């Protein structure tokens, strides 16, 4: 589908990426937005982990993200090493309306830095910015312009009191604070909204830029062709009906067009 | 009850007459073929059980209870409409007419059941079940015949499903015997919040969101109540994601109360450990599953190994949510039907089933699986397969009947036919095999993360911190800390609060156990010999010193210590040099932190020292503490700021109140350094009483061939052991052979040279309290008496009992020391606990002492001659004539 010729598949670089973070911060929604450009208001919690793939073009290279979307609840923590082993990139997500989720994110970062692949590229992502933006203003220009008609007007975690009054008052994690931490710990930093799509693509673009692609190619040479073949089939299984990168690509973004 | 004699086998026929005909209009006949005693026993047990049941008076509640069961109504309607189709419509009109028919049902009654009723052939299934239930009992009294299993495998009718799940899993009995429990749980915990309730709130709208009921308050409310009630009932398990999906699924078919009990049975008995905080059940079953795949489908397994794909990446969610969110719901529910049906009293059968199912899935997809190259491909293949379960399994077949077989039917067929070999026993055996491994990996994982989450390692290495964690973990196992009390719900969630990560904190009780794993003086290790056996015992010591340490380390005044507190606390003492240790000890006892010890505190400090020294050999330490006390008071008095104008030489100084500041650190240091033993204690010995390594098993001389040696080895349970120990102790005491040896905390002084007390700097008033002789006598007594234990008699090398040299008879140092302090170093003879060979501290009479000991050995040997072999007797003779070991 998105990858019609076999030669292109050969060129694609597989990047294993894992999403970590507290429960209900929007990990699955970020992936869903990236992979299918969709948003579901009430996404079922991830049990164990979910697996999705998406291709991404960076300059002349095609990256194939293999995304492991893990369960957020604390007790699934012990399963996480199974998913982040050999990962080249990690997206650690927190909810900007929930202070404790940043703390959890920090422990994930700490764990990754100590136990995961030493060259792992880590991105810290503060999700749900739509909750703190005035509802009147449209979402940021980075968003894919397709309007998503959602029943909800926000990605508020179900069950929590819905956003009322001053939207900015919902914010518990100041951007500056998280950014400073990210800088200190050497992480990429983003604030996003899986609901509006704001900032989602950028995460994966910046990760793609930062990943030592040549190194991955060198290490996986020989296995790449085989993996590509399997990936083609796998991609057909999942991303059907989703957003094809190449088609959807001309949004004025220079690098990764998802 | 009738009985037919048939040679040795008796056929017992029990007819259980229904208590009232309208309640159980069926008669049950149980035929039992067995040996007569067995049959008699069965009958009497049955009779007793039935009587007990009647006495409990629960029979009365049966009538009301069964009205909540749909089956009753089904049968009632079937009775009247015998020749017509026992259709659902008819049953429902019955329900509308009769006022007392109030069967419980799930959300499905209002929001429709998933699937097409016609396609599922609801009517004919219901009819079949009506017939079965009429013939073989229902709800509380269902008897399961093979036909029942077959009917379940075809799929349960929607309206009956909830009740049958309840009946098959056994949760109906819990609901029956705990009426009102569910409402009570909710009522009592109304408005309570906890981590679990917070997590539940997050997931309420995310549980089967496509099912209409879960888009309305009806469904959400029911789901919330069921999950919360479970978390209140089982605070240890609380709430685990996947439980929401499970609960949402069963709530479609059953009422809240039914769902609550079913959830309880699933989480506690059918899938033990699946949803616990460590998820050990899940991890264990993943290992078991992998091993079964290895056995049953070796080709697939090897392929997966070759391409480095982990099976559990896909199978873990299946197991956790029972396929509910992996397969289309209609099929998932049929799998659950089978699960509950096979969930017998032995819970693991259920697991066998889910393993079988999963292996069958792999088998059916075998060829495709062999082409898979990575995790992703595997997951996609499985997802495609599940979504096509409704499709024909043989679309190419020319036979229309073969084409009609869906993939789902094929799956069930393969499961039950080909993998029936995977039995309960197989699973159990596999689980046993992997249990240790899984537990170990969980433990090492939580250890690593606990160590990682420390704010600071202080001066410890990671391994040392790991050892501290091990000791803490062991202590928690032995003495579980009280359940964490959640702070009262507050409307204001400040940032500081939310940053607080929940962590394990231990109370004083657990702390004592913890400390006993680390510090030698915080445990009592003793070897008890009573003439019959010799055994090592270890207990947790109790002393005010330990309590003091607990509160000293509790720097945040929480009344509980975290792992970090313990690490920091140990850091504060384990790396100290002489001066730091003295200061640390001083601060520990300076309660108000004013830099002065009061007189009372000096006494307490001395008691602490005595506590640490309580089992040291000889009385050198006792002497040191006594000197410390007298010096401390002397220095203290001498250095005391005197009221101006008072005569410095006057004896009549104003008396110092016991609670007034008395000596400061410098004075304390001076006093300590005045004594060689204390100096050495603070320089190295005290720090080295903390050991960050597993406490070794106490080394007994490796022989249990005493009188009761063989008996000993056959006693396996701890209880039995305790009883035997108590018994032999009593006997030992009565024949005067009871002896207890304690291991000293420091154990440095085992040699005969006694460190000399330094002369006091101020006044040479100190009496030389401890003499060489007394120490020597203690040694002399100890060694031969340990030889006298029968357990040692067959040792070829007497030297192998050296470990016992570490043990010393327990002097009751406290009493002795108090007396000392009071009577200004008047020596009091101190008694040895229970021991016959009293450690009489007569300072000169060592000769007589030794004689006594030898007499004792004689008597001892004579008393036990009968149990000795010739060789042992010879050895014993040798021992008697041997020189006492010096």
UniProtKB/TrEMBL annotation, chain A:
The cross-references to InterPro entries, in alphabetical order and at most eight, read:
P-loop_NTPase (IPR027417), Small_GTP-bd (IPR005225), Small_GTPase (IPR001806)
Quick one: signal sequence residues? none
Gene3D superfamilies, alphabetically? P-loop containing nucleotide triphosphate hydrolases (3.40.50.300)
Superkingdom to which the source organism belongs: Eukaryota
- Pfam families noted in UniProt: Ras
According to the UniProt entry, its GO molecular function terms are: GTP binding; GTPase activity
Name of this chain's protein: Uncharacterized protein
Q: Which organism is it from?
A: Hermanssonia centrifuga
Residues passing through the membrane, by range:
none
Automatic annotation (TrEMBL), chain B:
Domain Rab-GAP TBC stretches: 155-343
Instruction: Give the span(s) annotated as Disordered.
Output: 829-886
Which InterPro entries does the record match to this protein?
EF-hand-dom_pair (IPR011992), EF_Hand_1_Ca_BS (IPR018247), EF_hand_dom (IPR002048), Rab-GAP-TBC_dom (IPR000195), Rab-GAP_TBC_sf (IPR035969), Rab_GAP_TBC_domain (IPR050302)
Instruction: Respond yes or no to whether keyword Calcium is given for this record.
Output: yes
Is Protein biosynthesis set as a keyword in this record?
no
Q: Which UniProt keywords apply?
A: Calcium
Q: Residue ranges under compositional bias (Acidic residues)?
A: 835-859
Q: PROSITE patterns, alphabetically? A: EF_HAND_1, EF_HAND_2, TBC_RABGAP
Q: Can you give the residue ranges of the EF-hand domain? A: 577-612
Q: Which GO terms describe its molecular function?
A: calcium ion binding; GTPase activator activity; small GTPase binding
**SMART domains named among the record's database cross-references:** TBC
- Read off the Gene3D superfamilies from this record: EF-hand, putative rabgap domain of human tbc1 domain family member 14 like domains, Ypt/Rab-GAP domain of gyp1p, domain 1, Ypt/Rab-GAP domain of gyp1p, domain 3
Protein's recorded name: TBC1 domain family member 9
């Amino acid at each position: 589908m998105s990858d019609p010729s076999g030669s292109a598949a050969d060129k694609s670089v597989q990047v294993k990426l894992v999403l970590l973070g507290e429960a209900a911060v929007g990990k699955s929604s970020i992936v869903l937005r990236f992979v299918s450009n969709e948003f579901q208001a009430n996404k079922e919690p991830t049990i164990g982990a979910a697996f999705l793939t998406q291709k991404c073009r960076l300059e002349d290279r095609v990256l194939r993200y293999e995304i492991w979307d893990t369960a957020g609840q604390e007790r699934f923590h012990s399963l996480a090493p199974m998913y982040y082993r050999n990962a080249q990139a990690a997206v650690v997500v927190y909810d900007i309306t929930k202070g404790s989720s940043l703390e959890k994110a920090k422990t994930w970062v700490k764990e990754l830095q100590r136990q995961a692949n030493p060259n792992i590229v880590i991105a810290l992502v503060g999700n749900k910015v739509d909750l703190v933006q005035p509802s009147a203003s449209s979402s940021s220009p980075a968003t894919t312009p397709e309007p998503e008609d959602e029943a909800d007007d926000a990605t508020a975690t179900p069950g929590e009191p819905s956003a009322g009054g001053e939207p900015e008052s919902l914010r518990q994690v100041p951007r500056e604070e998280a950014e400073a931490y990210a800088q200190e710990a050497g992480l990429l930093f983003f604030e996003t909204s899986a609901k509006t799509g704001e900032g989602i693509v950028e995460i994966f673009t910046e990760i793609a830029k930062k990943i030592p692609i040549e190194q991955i190619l060198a290490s996986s040479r020989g296995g790449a062709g085989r993996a590509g073949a399997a990936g083609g089939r796998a991609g057909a299984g999942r991303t059907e009906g989703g957003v094809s990168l190449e088609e959807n690509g001309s949004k004025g973004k220079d690098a990764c067009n998802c | 009850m009738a009985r037919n004699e048939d040679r040795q086998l008796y056929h017992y026929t029990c007819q259980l007459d229904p208590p009232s005909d309208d309640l159980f209009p069926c008669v049950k006949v149980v035929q039992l073929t067995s040996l007569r005693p067995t049959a008699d026993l069965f009958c009497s047990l049955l009779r007793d059980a039935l009587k007990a049941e009647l006495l409990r008076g629960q029979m009365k509640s049966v009538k009301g209870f069964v009205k909540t069961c749909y089956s009753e109504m089904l049968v009632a309607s079937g009775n009247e409409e015998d020749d017509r189709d026992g259709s659902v419509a008819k049953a429902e009109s019955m329900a509308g007419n009769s006022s007392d028919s109030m069967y419980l049902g799930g959300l499905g009654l209002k929001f429709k059941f998933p699937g097409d009723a016609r396609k599922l052939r609801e009517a004919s299934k219901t009819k079949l079940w009506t017939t079965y239930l009429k013939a073989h009992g229902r709800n509380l009294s269902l008897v399961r015949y093979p036909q029942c299993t077959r009917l379940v495998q075809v799929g349960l009718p929607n309206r009956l499903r909830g009740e049958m799940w309840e009946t098959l899993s056994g949760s109906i009995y819990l609901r029956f015997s705990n009426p009102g429990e569910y409402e009570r749980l909710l009522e009592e915990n109304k408005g309570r919040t906890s981590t679990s309730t917070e997590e539940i709130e997050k997931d309420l709208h995310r549980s089967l969101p496509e099912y209409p009921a879960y888009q309305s308050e009806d469904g959400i409310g029911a789901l919330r109540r069921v999950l919360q009630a479970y978390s209140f009932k089982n605070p240890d398990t609380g709430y685990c994601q996947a439980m929401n999906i499970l609960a949402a699924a069963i709530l479609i078919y059953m009422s809240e109360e039914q769902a609550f009990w079913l959830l309880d049975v699933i989480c506690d008995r059918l899938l033990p450990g699946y949803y616990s905080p460590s998820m050990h059940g899940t991890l264990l079953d993943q290992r078991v599953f992998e091993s079964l795949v290895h056995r049953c489908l070796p080709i697939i397994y090897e392929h997966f190994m070759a391409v480095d794909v982990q099976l559990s990446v896909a199978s873990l969610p299946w197991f956790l949510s029972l396929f509910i969110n992996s397969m289309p719901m209609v099929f998932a529910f049929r799998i659950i039907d089978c699960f509950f049906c096979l969930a017998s009293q032995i819970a693991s059968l259920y697991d066998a089933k889910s393993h079988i199912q999963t292996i069958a899935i792999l088998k059916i997809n075998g060829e495709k699986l062999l082409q898979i190259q990575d995790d992703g491909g595997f997951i996609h293949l499985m997802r495609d397969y599940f979504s096509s379960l409704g499709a024909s399994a043989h679309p190419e077949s020319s036979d229309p009947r073969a084409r009609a077989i869906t993939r789902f039917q094929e799956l069930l067929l393969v499961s039950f036919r080909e993998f029936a070999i995977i039995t309960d026993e197989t699973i159990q055996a596999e689980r046993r095999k992997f249990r240790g491994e899984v537990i170990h990996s969980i433990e090492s994982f939580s250890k690593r993360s606990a160590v990682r989450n420390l704010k600071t390692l202080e001066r410890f290495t990671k391994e040392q911190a790991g050892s501290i964690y091990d000791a803490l973990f062991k202590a928690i196992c032995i003495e579980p800390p009280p359940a964490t009390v959640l702070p009262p719900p507050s409307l204001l969630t400040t940032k500081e609060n939310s940053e607080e990560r929940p962590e394990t904190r231990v109370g004083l009780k657990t702390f004592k156990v913890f400390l006993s794993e680390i510090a030698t003086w915080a445990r009592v290790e003793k070897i008890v010999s009573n003439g019959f056996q010799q055994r090592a015992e270890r207990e947790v010591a109790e002393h005010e010193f330990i309590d003091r340490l607990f509160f000293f380390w509790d720097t945040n005044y929480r009344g509980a210590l975290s792992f970090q507190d313990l690490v920091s606390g140990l850091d504060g003492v384990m790396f100290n040099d002489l001066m730091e240790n003295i200061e640390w000890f001083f601060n520990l006892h300076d309660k108000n932190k004013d830099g002065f010890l009061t007189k009372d505190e000096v006494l307490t400090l001395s008691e602490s020292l005595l506590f640490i020294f309580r089992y040291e050999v000889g009385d050198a330490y006792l002497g040191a503490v006594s000197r410390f006390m007298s010096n401390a008071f002397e220095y203290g008095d001498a250095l005391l700021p005197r009221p101006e104008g008072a005569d410095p030489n006057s004896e009549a100084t104003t008396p110092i109140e016991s609670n007034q500041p008395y000596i400061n650190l410098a004075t304390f240091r001076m006093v300590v350094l005045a004594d060689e033993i204390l100096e050495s204690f603070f320089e190295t010995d005290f720090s080295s009483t903390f050991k960050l390594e597993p406490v070794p098993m106490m080394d007994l001389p490796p022989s249990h061939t005493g009188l009761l040696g063989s008996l000993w080895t056959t006693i396996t349970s701890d209880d039995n052991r305790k009883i035997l120990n108590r018994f032999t102790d009593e006997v030992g005491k009565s024949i005067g052979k009871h002896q207890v040896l304690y291991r000293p905390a420091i154990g440095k002084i085992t040699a005969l040279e006694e460190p000399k007390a330094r002369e006091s700097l101020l006044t040479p008033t100190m009496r030389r309290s401890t003499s060489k002789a007394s120490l020597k006598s203690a040694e002399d007594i100890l060694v031969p008496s340990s030889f006298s234990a029968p357990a040692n008699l067959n040792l070829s090398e007497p030297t192998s009992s050296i470990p016992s040299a570490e043990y010393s008879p327990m002097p009751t140092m406290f009493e002795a020391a108090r007396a000392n302090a009071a009577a200004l170093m008047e020596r009091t003879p101190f008694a040895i606990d229970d021991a016959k060979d009293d450690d009489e501290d007569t300072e000169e009479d060592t000769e007589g002492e030794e004689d006594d000991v030898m007499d004792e050995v004689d008597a001892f040997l004579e008393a036990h001659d009968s149990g000795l072999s010739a060789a042992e007797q010879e050895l014993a003779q040798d021992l008697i004539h041997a020189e006492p070991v010096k």
